[in-house]
Write a structure and sequence with these properties.
The complex is a heterodimer of chains A (about 325) and B (about 290). In chain A, about 75% of the residues lie in helices and about 0% in strands. Chain A has 13 helices and two strands. In chain A, a hairpin with a 4-residue loop joins β1 and β2. Chain A has about 325 residues and is mainly α. Chain B has about 290 residues and is mostly helical. Chain B is about 80% helix and about 0% strand. Chain B is flat. The N and C termini of chain B lie far apart (about 55 Å). Classes of the chains: A mainly alpha (about 325), B mainly alpha (about 290). Chains A and B meet through α1, α4, α5, α6 and α7 of A and α1, α3, α4, α5 and α6 of B.
Protein backbone atom coordinates (compact mmCIF):
# COMPACT_ATOMS: atom_id res chain seq x y z
CA UNK A 1 0.00 0.00 0.00
CA UNK A 2 2.96 2.26 0.47
CA UNK A 3 3.60 4.39 -2.56
CA UNK A 4 6.81 6.36 -2.89
CA UNK A 5 6.72 10.09 -3.41
CA UNK A 6 8.47 9.94 -6.74
CA UNK A 7 5.92 7.63 -8.32
CA UNK A 8 2.78 9.33 -7.06
CA UNK A 9 2.46 12.34 -9.44
CA UNK A 10 3.37 10.22 -12.40
CA UNK A 11 0.65 7.72 -11.62
CA UNK A 12 -1.81 10.54 -11.08
CA UNK A 13 -0.93 12.07 -14.45
CA UNK A 14 -1.50 8.80 -16.20
CA UNK A 15 -4.78 8.38 -14.38
CA UNK A 16 -5.87 11.85 -15.41
CA UNK A 17 -4.84 11.26 -19.00
CA UNK A 18 -6.66 7.98 -19.24
CA UNK A 19 -9.72 9.51 -17.59
CA UNK A 20 -9.80 12.20 -20.26
CA UNK A 21 -9.29 9.62 -22.97
CA UNK A 22 -12.04 7.50 -21.55
CA UNK A 23 -14.37 10.50 -21.50
CA UNK A 24 -13.56 11.38 -25.09
CA UNK A 25 -14.07 7.78 -26.06
CA UNK A 26 -17.49 7.78 -24.42
CA UNK A 27 -18.54 11.02 -26.11
CA UNK A 28 -17.28 9.74 -29.45
CA UNK A 29 -19.19 6.53 -29.03
CA UNK A 30 -22.38 8.38 -28.08
CA UNK A 31 -22.17 10.56 -31.18
CA UNK A 32 -21.65 7.53 -33.40
CA UNK A 33 -24.44 5.63 -31.71
CA UNK A 34 -26.77 8.59 -32.13
CA UNK A 35 -26.05 8.63 -35.87
CA UNK A 36 -26.66 4.91 -36.13
CA UNK A 37 -29.94 5.29 -34.27
CA UNK A 38 -30.95 7.92 -36.84
CA UNK A 39 -31.20 5.05 -39.33
CA UNK A 40 -33.79 3.42 -37.08
CA UNK A 41 -35.47 6.77 -36.58
CA UNK A 42 -35.81 7.21 -40.34
CA UNK A 43 -37.67 3.93 -40.76
CA UNK A 44 -39.81 4.49 -37.71
CA UNK A 45 -40.40 8.12 -38.66
CA UNK A 46 -41.44 7.24 -42.19
CA UNK A 47 -43.99 4.77 -40.84
CA UNK A 48 -45.32 7.01 -38.06
CA UNK A 49 -45.43 10.23 -40.08
CA UNK A 50 -47.40 8.67 -42.91
CA UNK A 51 -49.66 6.98 -40.36
CA UNK A 52 -50.24 10.35 -38.72
CA UNK A 53 -50.67 12.16 -42.02
CA UNK A 54 -53.24 9.62 -43.14
CA UNK A 55 -55.02 9.11 -39.80
CA UNK A 56 -58.20 10.89 -40.89
CA UNK A 57 -58.75 8.27 -43.56
CA UNK A 58 -57.07 5.30 -41.95
CA UNK A 59 -58.89 5.57 -38.63
CA UNK A 60 -61.90 7.58 -39.77
CA UNK A 61 -63.18 5.08 -42.28
CA UNK A 62 -60.60 2.35 -42.24
CA UNK A 63 -62.71 -0.53 -43.56
CA UNK A 64 -64.26 1.58 -46.24
CA UNK A 65 -60.83 2.87 -47.28
CA UNK A 66 -59.38 -0.62 -47.57
CA UNK A 67 -62.37 -2.28 -49.20
CA UNK A 68 -63.77 0.33 -51.56
CA UNK A 69 -62.78 0.87 -55.15
CA UNK A 70 -64.21 4.38 -55.29
CA UNK A 71 -61.86 7.32 -55.75
CA UNK A 72 -63.78 10.52 -55.98
CA UNK A 73 -62.20 13.83 -54.94
CA UNK A 74 -65.48 15.66 -55.57
CA UNK A 75 -67.44 13.73 -52.96
CA UNK A 76 -64.33 13.01 -50.88
CA UNK A 77 -64.95 9.29 -51.16
CA UNK A 78 -61.72 7.32 -51.21
CA UNK A 79 -60.98 3.63 -51.45
CA UNK A 80 -57.55 2.11 -51.85
CA UNK A 81 -58.57 -0.96 -53.79
CA UNK A 82 -57.85 0.30 -57.32
CA UNK A 83 -54.33 1.59 -56.55
CA UNK A 84 -53.54 -1.55 -54.53
CA UNK A 85 -54.80 -3.67 -57.43
CA UNK A 86 -52.65 -1.78 -59.92
CA UNK A 87 -49.55 -1.98 -57.73
CA UNK A 88 -49.94 -5.71 -57.19
CA UNK A 89 -50.77 -6.55 -60.80
CA UNK A 90 -47.89 -4.55 -62.29
CA UNK A 91 -45.46 -6.00 -59.74
CA UNK A 92 -46.62 -9.55 -60.42
CA UNK A 93 -46.25 -9.04 -64.19
CA UNK A 94 -42.78 -7.63 -63.56
CA UNK A 95 -41.80 -10.67 -61.48
CA UNK A 96 -43.24 -13.18 -63.93
CA UNK A 97 -41.16 -11.63 -66.70
CA UNK A 98 -38.03 -10.64 -64.77
CA UNK A 99 -37.41 -13.83 -62.77
CA UNK A 100 -36.81 -16.21 -65.70
CA UNK A 101 -34.81 -13.60 -67.62
CA UNK A 102 -32.69 -12.85 -64.54
CA UNK A 103 -32.15 -16.56 -64.03
CA UNK A 104 -31.03 -16.81 -67.65
CA UNK A 105 -28.64 -13.90 -67.22
CA UNK A 106 -27.24 -15.46 -64.04
CA UNK A 107 -26.74 -18.77 -65.88
CA UNK A 108 -25.00 -16.95 -68.69
CA UNK A 109 -22.72 -15.04 -66.35
CA UNK A 110 -21.76 -17.99 -64.16
CA UNK A 111 -21.76 -20.95 -66.56
CA UNK A 112 -21.89 -20.02 -70.22
CA UNK A 113 -19.90 -16.88 -70.90
CA UNK A 114 -16.13 -17.08 -71.34
CA UNK A 115 -14.37 -15.52 -68.36
CA UNK A 116 -13.26 -12.41 -70.21
CA UNK A 117 -16.85 -11.62 -71.15
CA UNK A 118 -18.33 -11.96 -67.64
CA UNK A 119 -17.01 -8.71 -66.19
CA UNK A 120 -18.17 -6.39 -68.98
CA UNK A 121 -21.56 -8.07 -69.39
CA UNK A 122 -22.39 -8.03 -65.69
CA UNK A 123 -21.26 -4.39 -65.51
CA UNK A 124 -23.55 -3.59 -68.42
CA UNK A 125 -26.51 -5.35 -66.82
CA UNK A 126 -25.85 -3.50 -63.57
CA UNK A 127 -25.81 -0.26 -65.55
CA UNK A 128 -29.55 -0.85 -66.03
CA UNK A 129 -29.92 -0.37 -62.28
CA UNK A 130 -28.03 2.90 -62.47
CA UNK A 131 -30.32 4.57 -65.00
CA UNK A 132 -32.60 7.01 -63.15
CA UNK A 133 -36.23 5.92 -63.03
CA UNK A 134 -37.41 9.13 -64.72
CA UNK A 135 -35.46 8.03 -67.81
CA UNK A 136 -37.31 4.71 -67.78
CA UNK A 137 -40.49 6.73 -67.56
CA UNK A 138 -39.63 8.91 -70.56
CA UNK A 139 -38.45 5.98 -72.62
CA UNK A 140 -41.60 4.14 -71.60
CA UNK A 141 -43.92 6.96 -72.58
CA UNK A 142 -42.31 8.12 -75.82
CA UNK A 143 -40.87 4.91 -77.20
CA UNK A 144 -42.24 1.84 -75.48
CA UNK A 145 -45.91 2.86 -75.34
CA UNK A 146 -46.13 3.39 -79.14
CA UNK A 147 -44.24 0.12 -79.60
CA UNK A 148 -46.72 -1.70 -77.36
CA UNK A 149 -49.64 -0.10 -79.17
CA UNK A 150 -48.39 -1.88 -82.31
CA UNK A 151 -47.80 -5.18 -80.53
CA UNK A 152 -51.02 -5.34 -78.54
CA UNK A 153 -53.42 -6.19 -81.41
CA UNK A 154 -51.22 -9.19 -82.17
CA UNK A 155 -51.32 -10.17 -78.49
CA UNK A 156 -55.11 -9.94 -78.46
CA UNK A 157 -55.32 -12.10 -81.56
CA UNK A 158 -53.03 -14.82 -80.26
CA UNK A 159 -52.84 -14.99 -76.46
CA UNK A 160 -56.23 -13.31 -76.23
CA UNK A 161 -57.91 -16.29 -77.94
CA UNK A 162 -56.64 -18.82 -75.39
CA UNK A 163 -59.08 -20.21 -72.83
CA UNK A 164 -58.75 -19.00 -69.21
CA UNK A 165 -55.94 -16.47 -69.68
CA UNK A 166 -57.39 -15.09 -72.90
CA UNK A 167 -59.33 -12.37 -71.08
CA UNK A 168 -56.13 -10.86 -69.75
CA UNK A 169 -55.00 -9.91 -73.23
CA UNK A 170 -58.20 -8.51 -74.67
CA UNK A 171 -58.77 -4.82 -74.82
CA UNK A 172 -58.11 -1.66 -76.75
CA UNK A 173 -54.53 -1.39 -78.03
CA UNK A 174 -53.73 1.86 -76.21
CA UNK A 175 -50.12 1.05 -75.50
CA UNK A 176 -50.63 2.51 -72.02
CA UNK A 177 -51.72 0.14 -69.30
CA UNK A 178 -50.91 -2.47 -66.72
CA UNK A 179 -49.00 -4.77 -69.07
CA UNK A 180 -46.75 -2.00 -70.39
CA UNK A 181 -46.05 -0.78 -66.85
CA UNK A 182 -45.28 -4.35 -65.79
CA UNK A 183 -42.77 -4.78 -68.61
CA UNK A 184 -41.02 -1.49 -67.82
CA UNK A 185 -40.84 -2.55 -64.16
CA UNK A 186 -39.46 -5.92 -65.21
CA UNK A 187 -36.58 -4.22 -67.03
CA UNK A 188 -35.93 -2.08 -63.97
CA UNK A 189 -35.77 -4.93 -61.44
CA UNK A 190 -33.91 -7.31 -63.73
CA UNK A 191 -30.43 -6.14 -62.67
CA UNK A 192 -31.29 -6.45 -58.96
CA UNK A 193 -32.54 -10.02 -59.19
CA UNK A 194 -29.86 -11.19 -61.60
CA UNK A 195 -27.01 -9.74 -59.57
CA UNK A 196 -28.25 -11.47 -56.40
CA UNK A 197 -28.60 -14.74 -58.32
CA UNK A 198 -25.16 -14.40 -59.89
CA UNK A 199 -23.56 -13.65 -56.53
CA UNK A 200 -25.16 -16.54 -54.70
CA UNK A 201 -24.53 -18.98 -57.56
CA UNK A 202 -20.86 -18.21 -57.14
CA UNK A 203 -20.99 -19.20 -53.46
CA UNK A 204 -21.84 -22.80 -54.29
CA UNK A 205 -18.80 -24.90 -53.31
CA UNK A 206 -16.91 -26.03 -56.40
CA UNK A 207 -16.59 -29.57 -55.06
CA UNK A 208 -20.38 -29.98 -55.10
CA UNK A 209 -20.60 -28.88 -58.70
CA UNK A 210 -17.59 -30.88 -59.81
CA UNK A 211 -18.84 -34.02 -58.08
CA UNK A 212 -22.01 -33.71 -60.06
CA UNK A 213 -20.13 -33.09 -63.29
CA UNK A 214 -17.99 -36.15 -62.51
CA UNK A 215 -21.15 -38.25 -62.33
CA UNK A 216 -21.93 -37.11 -65.85
CA UNK A 217 -24.41 -34.29 -65.25
CA UNK A 218 -24.96 -31.67 -67.89
CA UNK A 219 -24.55 -27.98 -67.07
CA UNK A 220 -28.32 -27.62 -66.81
CA UNK A 221 -28.59 -30.57 -64.40
CA UNK A 222 -25.87 -29.12 -62.20
CA UNK A 223 -27.72 -25.81 -62.16
CA UNK A 224 -31.15 -27.27 -61.54
CA UNK A 225 -30.26 -30.07 -59.12
CA UNK A 226 -27.20 -28.71 -57.31
CA UNK A 227 -26.89 -24.93 -57.59
CA UNK A 228 -30.57 -23.98 -57.22
CA UNK A 229 -31.35 -26.21 -54.23
CA UNK A 230 -28.18 -25.01 -52.49
CA UNK A 231 -29.04 -21.34 -53.02
CA UNK A 232 -32.82 -21.61 -52.84
CA UNK A 233 -33.41 -19.29 -49.90
CA UNK A 234 -31.13 -16.59 -51.27
CA UNK A 235 -32.68 -16.82 -54.73
CA UNK A 236 -36.12 -16.32 -53.19
CA UNK A 237 -34.64 -13.46 -51.21
CA UNK A 238 -33.37 -11.87 -54.42
CA UNK A 239 -36.80 -12.25 -56.02
CA UNK A 240 -38.45 -10.58 -53.03
CA UNK A 241 -35.86 -7.80 -53.23
CA UNK A 242 -36.96 -7.23 -56.81
CA UNK A 243 -40.60 -7.34 -55.73
CA UNK A 244 -39.90 -4.70 -53.09
CA UNK A 245 -38.39 -2.46 -55.76
CA UNK A 246 -41.28 -3.03 -58.13
CA UNK A 247 -43.93 -2.24 -55.52
CA UNK A 248 -42.44 1.11 -54.62
CA UNK A 249 -41.29 2.30 -58.03
CA UNK A 250 -42.88 5.59 -58.98
CA UNK A 251 -41.62 7.55 -61.92
CA UNK A 252 -41.26 4.68 -64.38
CA UNK A 253 -44.87 3.56 -63.99
CA UNK A 254 -46.53 6.95 -63.57
CA UNK A 255 -46.14 7.83 -67.25
CA UNK A 256 -47.16 4.50 -68.75
CA UNK A 257 -49.96 3.38 -66.45
CA UNK A 258 -52.61 5.77 -67.74
CA UNK A 259 -53.75 6.94 -64.30
CA UNK A 260 -57.32 5.70 -64.24
CA UNK A 261 -59.00 4.15 -61.23
CA UNK A 262 -60.00 0.85 -62.81
CA UNK A 263 -60.10 -2.72 -61.68
CA UNK A 264 -60.30 -4.71 -64.87
CA UNK A 265 -59.68 -8.24 -66.02
CA UNK A 266 -57.67 -6.97 -68.98
CA UNK A 267 -53.98 -6.21 -68.65
CA UNK A 268 -54.20 -3.91 -71.66
CA UNK A 269 -56.44 -1.45 -69.82
CA UNK A 270 -55.02 1.63 -68.12
CA UNK A 271 -54.86 1.56 -64.35
CA UNK A 272 -53.19 3.28 -61.46
CA UNK A 273 -50.83 2.30 -58.69
CA UNK A 274 -50.26 3.56 -55.17
CA UNK A 275 -47.10 5.42 -56.04
CA UNK A 276 -48.37 6.90 -59.28
CA UNK A 277 -51.59 8.09 -57.60
CA UNK A 278 -49.50 9.90 -55.02
CA UNK A 279 -47.15 11.39 -57.59
CA UNK A 280 -49.96 12.53 -59.88
CA UNK A 281 -52.36 13.98 -57.38
CA UNK A 282 -50.51 15.01 -54.27
CA UNK A 283 -49.75 18.60 -55.22
CA UNK A 284 -53.34 19.34 -56.20
CA UNK A 285 -54.84 17.53 -53.25
CA UNK A 286 -56.15 19.22 -50.12
CA UNK A 287 -57.85 18.05 -46.93
CA UNK A 288 -59.21 14.51 -46.96
CA UNK A 289 -57.83 13.88 -50.46
CA UNK A 290 -54.28 14.60 -49.27
CA UNK A 291 -54.86 12.50 -46.18
CA UNK A 292 -56.04 9.62 -48.37
CA UNK A 293 -52.88 9.87 -50.47
CA UNK A 294 -50.64 9.87 -47.40
CA UNK A 295 -52.60 6.87 -46.11
CA UNK A 296 -51.83 5.14 -49.42
CA UNK A 297 -48.18 5.96 -48.79
CA UNK A 298 -48.44 4.30 -45.39
CA UNK A 299 -49.92 1.14 -46.91
CA UNK A 300 -47.14 1.09 -49.52
CA UNK A 301 -44.48 1.50 -46.87
CA UNK A 302 -45.86 -1.28 -44.70
CA UNK A 303 -46.20 -3.69 -47.61
CA UNK A 304 -42.73 -3.03 -49.02
CA UNK A 305 -41.27 -3.22 -45.50
CA UNK A 306 -42.70 -6.68 -45.01
CA UNK A 307 -41.58 -7.84 -48.47
CA UNK A 308 -38.06 -6.49 -47.97
CA UNK A 309 -37.93 -7.98 -44.47
CA UNK A 310 -38.68 -11.41 -45.92
CA UNK A 311 -36.10 -10.80 -48.65
CA UNK A 312 -33.34 -9.95 -46.18
CA UNK A 313 -34.19 -12.85 -43.89
CA UNK A 314 -34.02 -15.26 -46.82
CA UNK A 315 -30.74 -13.77 -48.02
CA UNK A 316 -29.30 -14.03 -44.52
CA UNK A 317 -30.01 -17.74 -44.32
CA UNK A 318 -27.48 -18.55 -47.01
CA UNK A 319 -24.95 -16.11 -45.56
CA UNK A 320 -25.30 -17.87 -42.20
CA UNK A 321 -24.70 -21.27 -43.71
CA UNK A 322 -21.69 -19.84 -45.52
CA UNK A 323 -20.30 -18.64 -42.22
CA UNK A 324 -20.50 -22.08 -40.63
CA UNK B 1 -36.80 -45.28 -73.41
CA UNK B 2 -33.41 -46.37 -74.63
CA UNK B 3 -30.24 -45.08 -73.03
CA UNK B 4 -29.37 -43.18 -76.19
CA UNK B 5 -32.81 -41.58 -76.17
CA UNK B 6 -32.43 -40.39 -72.58
CA UNK B 7 -28.99 -39.07 -73.34
CA UNK B 8 -30.30 -37.18 -76.35
CA UNK B 9 -33.12 -35.66 -74.31
CA UNK B 10 -30.72 -34.54 -71.60
CA UNK B 11 -28.47 -32.96 -74.18
CA UNK B 12 -31.37 -31.17 -75.82
CA UNK B 13 -32.60 -29.85 -72.46
CA UNK B 14 -29.10 -28.65 -71.69
CA UNK B 15 -28.68 -26.96 -75.05
CA UNK B 16 -32.10 -25.35 -74.59
CA UNK B 17 -31.09 -23.98 -71.20
CA UNK B 18 -27.83 -22.58 -72.51
CA UNK B 19 -29.56 -20.96 -75.47
CA UNK B 20 -32.17 -19.52 -73.11
CA UNK B 21 -29.47 -18.06 -70.88
CA UNK B 22 -27.72 -16.41 -73.81
CA UNK B 23 -30.99 -15.05 -75.18
CA UNK B 24 -31.97 -13.67 -71.77
CA UNK B 25 -28.65 -11.84 -71.52
CA UNK B 26 -29.06 -10.53 -75.06
CA UNK B 27 -32.54 -9.30 -74.13
CA UNK B 28 -31.21 -7.49 -71.06
CA UNK B 29 -28.45 -5.86 -73.10
CA UNK B 30 -30.95 -4.99 -75.82
CA UNK B 31 -33.05 -3.01 -73.37
CA UNK B 32 -29.95 -1.25 -72.02
CA UNK B 33 -28.83 -0.25 -75.50
CA UNK B 34 -32.35 0.70 -76.50
CA UNK B 35 -32.89 3.00 -73.52
CA UNK B 36 -29.43 4.56 -73.76
CA UNK B 37 -29.71 5.00 -77.51
CA UNK B 38 -33.08 6.72 -77.26
CA UNK B 39 -31.83 8.99 -74.50
CA UNK B 40 -28.60 9.90 -76.26
CA UNK B 41 -29.99 10.39 -79.75
CA UNK B 42 -32.97 12.47 -78.56
CA UNK B 43 -30.83 14.32 -76.06
CA UNK B 44 -27.97 15.28 -78.35
CA UNK B 45 -30.26 16.72 -80.97
CA UNK B 46 -31.82 18.94 -78.28
CA UNK B 47 -28.64 20.15 -76.61
CA UNK B 48 -28.41 23.91 -77.04
CA UNK B 49 -26.45 26.61 -75.20
CA UNK B 50 -29.76 28.07 -74.03
CA UNK B 51 -30.14 25.05 -71.74
CA UNK B 52 -27.47 26.47 -69.50
CA UNK B 53 -28.26 30.16 -69.79
CA UNK B 54 -32.05 30.51 -69.81
CA UNK B 55 -34.51 29.65 -67.06
CA UNK B 56 -37.61 27.49 -67.29
CA UNK B 57 -40.01 30.42 -66.84
CA UNK B 58 -39.78 31.20 -70.55
CA UNK B 59 -40.21 27.69 -71.82
CA UNK B 60 -39.98 28.66 -75.51
CA UNK B 61 -36.35 29.66 -74.96
CA UNK B 62 -35.51 26.10 -74.00
CA UNK B 63 -33.67 26.83 -70.76
CA UNK B 64 -33.02 24.57 -67.81
CA UNK B 65 -30.41 26.64 -65.98
CA UNK B 66 -32.45 27.12 -62.80
CA UNK B 67 -33.20 23.39 -62.68
CA UNK B 68 -29.52 22.52 -63.15
CA UNK B 69 -28.45 24.95 -60.42
CA UNK B 70 -31.25 23.76 -58.13
CA UNK B 71 -30.24 20.15 -58.62
CA UNK B 72 -26.59 20.94 -57.90
CA UNK B 73 -27.50 22.84 -54.73
CA UNK B 74 -29.87 20.19 -53.41
CA UNK B 75 -27.58 17.27 -54.26
CA UNK B 76 -24.70 19.01 -52.52
CA UNK B 77 -26.77 19.87 -49.45
CA UNK B 78 -28.10 16.33 -49.34
CA UNK B 79 -24.54 15.00 -49.37
CA UNK B 80 -23.52 17.44 -46.64
CA UNK B 81 -26.34 16.06 -44.52
CA UNK B 82 -26.05 12.36 -45.21
CA UNK B 83 -22.29 11.89 -45.65
CA UNK B 84 -21.20 12.76 -42.07
CA UNK B 85 -24.17 10.99 -40.49
CA UNK B 86 -23.77 7.97 -42.74
CA UNK B 87 -20.02 7.66 -42.19
CA UNK B 88 -20.46 7.93 -38.41
CA UNK B 89 -23.32 5.45 -38.35
CA UNK B 90 -21.34 3.03 -40.51
CA UNK B 91 -18.33 3.44 -38.23
CA UNK B 92 -20.50 2.64 -35.22
CA UNK B 93 -21.75 -0.53 -36.88
CA UNK B 94 -18.30 -1.72 -37.91
CA UNK B 95 -16.23 -0.68 -34.89
CA UNK B 96 -18.50 -0.53 -31.86
CA UNK B 97 -21.48 -2.74 -32.50
CA UNK B 98 -20.14 -5.33 -34.88
CA UNK B 99 -21.49 -8.32 -33.02
CA UNK B 100 -24.01 -6.69 -30.70
CA UNK B 101 -27.71 -7.20 -31.14
CA UNK B 102 -28.33 -3.47 -31.64
CA UNK B 103 -25.63 -3.35 -34.32
CA UNK B 104 -26.94 -6.28 -36.29
CA UNK B 105 -30.52 -5.06 -36.15
CA UNK B 106 -29.50 -1.58 -37.34
CA UNK B 107 -27.48 -3.17 -40.13
CA UNK B 108 -30.47 -5.31 -41.07
CA UNK B 109 -32.91 -2.39 -41.08
CA UNK B 110 -30.44 -0.23 -43.00
CA UNK B 111 -30.50 -2.84 -45.75
CA UNK B 112 -34.29 -2.53 -45.84
CA UNK B 113 -34.07 1.26 -45.96
CA UNK B 114 -31.73 0.83 -48.94
CA UNK B 115 -34.61 -0.35 -51.11
CA UNK B 116 -37.50 1.40 -49.40
CA UNK B 117 -39.77 3.31 -51.81
CA UNK B 118 -38.39 6.79 -52.36
CA UNK B 119 -41.82 8.35 -52.70
CA UNK B 120 -42.55 7.45 -49.07
CA UNK B 121 -39.39 9.34 -48.06
CA UNK B 122 -40.88 12.34 -49.86
CA UNK B 123 -44.12 11.96 -47.88
CA UNK B 124 -42.13 11.57 -44.66
CA UNK B 125 -40.24 14.83 -45.22
CA UNK B 126 -43.46 16.52 -46.30
CA UNK B 127 -45.08 15.62 -42.99
CA UNK B 128 -42.12 16.40 -40.71
CA UNK B 129 -40.62 19.46 -42.46
CA UNK B 130 -42.87 21.03 -45.08
CA UNK B 131 -46.09 21.01 -43.03
CA UNK B 132 -44.57 22.29 -39.74
CA UNK B 133 -42.60 25.02 -41.57
CA UNK B 134 -45.72 26.11 -43.38
CA UNK B 135 -47.65 26.22 -40.10
CA UNK B 136 -44.92 28.13 -38.29
CA UNK B 137 -44.49 30.76 -40.96
CA UNK B 138 -48.21 30.98 -41.84
CA UNK B 139 -47.56 29.64 -45.31
CA UNK B 140 -44.65 31.93 -46.21
CA UNK B 141 -42.26 29.02 -46.32
CA UNK B 142 -43.70 25.68 -47.31
CA UNK B 143 -41.96 23.66 -50.00
CA UNK B 144 -38.24 24.37 -49.93
CA UNK B 145 -34.92 23.33 -51.36
CA UNK B 146 -33.92 22.43 -47.81
CA UNK B 147 -36.80 19.97 -47.46
CA UNK B 148 -35.86 18.53 -50.85
CA UNK B 149 -32.29 17.96 -49.79
CA UNK B 150 -33.37 16.26 -46.56
CA UNK B 151 -35.51 13.89 -48.61
CA UNK B 152 -32.57 13.18 -50.93
CA UNK B 153 -30.29 12.73 -47.92
CA UNK B 154 -32.60 9.97 -46.67
CA UNK B 155 -32.13 8.21 -50.01
CA UNK B 156 -28.34 8.49 -49.84
CA UNK B 157 -27.94 7.69 -46.14
CA UNK B 158 -28.31 3.89 -46.23
CA UNK B 159 -25.89 3.64 -49.17
CA UNK B 160 -23.18 5.46 -47.22
CA UNK B 161 -23.87 3.55 -43.99
CA UNK B 162 -23.54 0.26 -45.76
CA UNK B 163 -20.35 0.99 -47.73
CA UNK B 164 -18.63 2.58 -44.73
CA UNK B 165 -19.52 -0.44 -42.61
CA UNK B 166 -18.23 -2.87 -45.24
CA UNK B 167 -15.08 -0.90 -46.00
CA UNK B 168 -14.09 -0.59 -42.34
CA UNK B 169 -14.53 -4.32 -41.89
CA UNK B 170 -12.02 -4.83 -44.68
CA UNK B 171 -9.33 -2.97 -42.73
CA UNK B 172 -7.04 -5.64 -41.29
CA UNK B 173 -7.34 -6.23 -37.54
CA UNK B 174 -3.57 -5.99 -37.10
CA UNK B 175 -3.82 -2.26 -37.83
CA UNK B 176 -6.21 -1.84 -34.89
CA UNK B 177 -4.05 -3.94 -32.60
CA UNK B 178 -0.90 -2.06 -33.56
CA UNK B 179 -2.51 1.29 -32.76
CA UNK B 180 -4.15 0.10 -29.55
CA UNK B 181 -0.88 -1.40 -28.32
CA UNK B 182 0.63 2.10 -28.53
CA UNK B 183 -2.01 3.27 -26.09
CA UNK B 184 -4.05 5.27 -28.60
CA UNK B 185 -7.61 5.90 -27.43
CA UNK B 186 -10.23 4.30 -29.59
CA UNK B 187 -11.64 7.49 -31.05
CA UNK B 188 -8.20 8.48 -32.28
CA UNK B 189 -7.66 5.03 -33.67
CA UNK B 190 -10.96 5.29 -35.53
CA UNK B 191 -10.51 8.79 -36.90
CA UNK B 192 -6.80 8.81 -37.64
CA UNK B 193 -6.11 5.22 -38.59
CA UNK B 194 -9.20 3.28 -39.64
CA UNK B 195 -11.16 5.92 -41.52
CA UNK B 196 -7.98 7.02 -43.24
CA UNK B 197 -7.18 3.45 -44.23
CA UNK B 198 -10.69 2.96 -45.62
CA UNK B 199 -10.99 6.46 -47.08
CA UNK B 200 -11.13 5.53 -50.76
CA UNK B 201 -13.81 2.93 -50.02
CA UNK B 202 -15.82 5.44 -48.02
CA UNK B 203 -15.46 7.98 -50.82
CA UNK B 204 -16.78 5.33 -53.20
CA UNK B 205 -19.83 5.00 -50.97
CA UNK B 206 -20.42 8.74 -50.96
CA UNK B 207 -20.16 8.89 -54.77
CA UNK B 208 -22.54 5.93 -55.06
CA UNK B 209 -24.99 7.76 -52.84
CA UNK B 210 -24.66 10.85 -55.04
CA UNK B 211 -25.31 8.77 -58.15
CA UNK B 212 -28.36 7.30 -56.48
CA UNK B 213 -29.91 10.50 -55.20
CA UNK B 214 -29.10 12.69 -58.21
CA UNK B 215 -31.58 10.80 -60.38
CA UNK B 216 -34.41 10.77 -57.85
CA UNK B 217 -37.63 12.52 -58.78
CA UNK B 218 -40.35 11.16 -56.54
CA UNK B 219 -39.04 12.48 -53.20
CA UNK B 220 -38.64 15.99 -54.65
CA UNK B 221 -42.19 16.40 -55.98
CA UNK B 222 -43.70 17.45 -52.67
CA UNK B 223 -40.64 18.67 -50.83
CA UNK B 224 -38.76 21.03 -53.18
CA UNK B 225 -41.78 21.27 -55.50
CA UNK B 226 -40.15 23.10 -58.39
CA UNK B 227 -39.68 26.71 -59.36
CA UNK B 228 -39.66 28.41 -62.73
CA UNK B 229 -37.20 31.06 -61.62
CA UNK B 230 -33.63 30.95 -60.49
CA UNK B 231 -33.22 30.78 -56.74
CA UNK B 232 -30.26 30.16 -54.50
CA UNK B 233 -32.15 30.46 -51.23
CA UNK B 234 -32.57 27.09 -49.50
CA UNK B 235 -35.97 28.05 -48.06
CA UNK B 236 -37.49 28.87 -51.45
CA UNK B 237 -39.24 26.39 -53.65
CA UNK B 238 -36.46 25.02 -55.78
CA UNK B 239 -36.35 23.64 -59.29
CA UNK B 240 -34.49 20.44 -60.01
CA UNK B 241 -33.56 18.65 -63.19
CA UNK B 242 -35.62 15.48 -62.58
CA UNK B 243 -38.74 17.42 -61.61
CA UNK B 244 -38.34 19.74 -64.60
CA UNK B 245 -38.04 16.68 -66.84
CA UNK B 246 -41.17 15.24 -65.22
CA UNK B 247 -43.15 18.43 -65.84
CA UNK B 248 -41.94 18.84 -69.42
CA UNK B 249 -42.70 15.20 -70.22
CA UNK B 250 -46.25 15.68 -68.97
CA UNK B 251 -46.63 18.69 -71.23
CA UNK B 252 -48.36 17.96 -74.55
CA UNK B 253 -46.02 20.15 -76.62
CA UNK B 254 -43.20 18.39 -78.54
CA UNK B 255 -40.89 21.40 -77.99
CA UNK B 256 -41.13 20.73 -74.25
CA UNK B 257 -40.38 17.08 -74.83
CA UNK B 258 -37.17 17.92 -76.60
CA UNK B 259 -36.03 20.06 -73.65
CA UNK B 260 -36.94 17.15 -71.37
CA UNK B 261 -34.76 14.84 -73.46
CA UNK B 262 -31.84 17.24 -73.19
CA UNK B 263 -32.27 17.26 -69.41
CA UNK B 264 -32.58 13.49 -69.41
CA UNK B 265 -29.30 13.19 -71.30
CA UNK B 266 -27.53 15.50 -68.84
CA UNK B 267 -28.74 13.55 -65.84
CA UNK B 268 -28.02 10.15 -67.38
CA UNK B 269 -24.49 11.17 -68.33
CA UNK B 270 -23.90 12.54 -64.84
CA UNK B 271 -25.17 9.41 -63.10
CA UNK B 272 -23.40 6.96 -65.43
CA UNK B 273 -20.12 8.90 -65.23
CA UNK B 274 -20.37 8.76 -61.44
CA UNK B 275 -20.96 5.03 -61.40
CA UNK B 276 -18.03 4.48 -63.79
CA UNK B 277 -15.86 6.61 -61.51
CA UNK B 278 -16.85 4.59 -58.45
CA UNK B 279 -16.12 1.40 -60.34
CA UNK B 280 -12.63 2.70 -61.14
CA UNK B 281 -12.01 3.80 -57.57
CA UNK B 282 -13.27 0.53 -56.24
CA UNK B 283 -11.28 -1.71 -58.56
CA UNK B 284 -8.11 0.17 -57.72
CA UNK B 285 -8.91 -0.32 -54.08
CA UNK B 286 -9.40 -4.03 -54.44
CA UNK B 287 -6.00 -4.37 -56.07
CA UNK B 288 -4.29 -2.48 -53.27
CA UNK B 289 -5.74 -4.86 -50.71
CA UNK B 290 -4.63 -8.06 -52.32
Amino acid sequence: MQVTRAEQPLARDIDKRSLIDARHDRIFQWVLKFCALLVLATLLGAALSTLWGGHEVLFGHSLHFLASDAWNPVTDDYGALAPIFGTLVTSVIALVLAVPVSFGIAIFLTEIAPTWLRGPVSAAIELLAGIPSIIYGMWGLFVFVPFMANVEPALSNTLGQLPLIGQLFQGPPLGLGLLTAGIVLAVMILPFISSVMREVFQTVPTRLKESSYALGSTTWEVLWDIVLPYTRSAVIGGIFLGLGRALGETMAVTFVLGNSYNITSSLLMPGTSISSSIANEFNEAVGIHRSALIALGFLLFVVTFVVLLVARLMLRQLAKREGK
Amino acid sequence: MSAAGIYLRRRITNAGALIFGSLATALGLLFLVWILWVTISNGISSIHPNLFTKITAYADQGGLSNAIVGSLIMDLMALLICAPIGVMAGTYLAEYANSSRLGSSIRFLNDILLSAPSIVMGLFVYVIIVLPMSNMTHGNVSFSGFAGSVALALIGLPVIVRTTDEMLQLVPGTLREAALSLGVPQWKLTVQVLIRAASSGILTGILLALARLAGETAPLLFTAFGNNFMTLHPLDKMASLPVAIYQYTNDPSPAMHSIAWAGALLITLFVLALSLLTRLLFSRKKVSYE
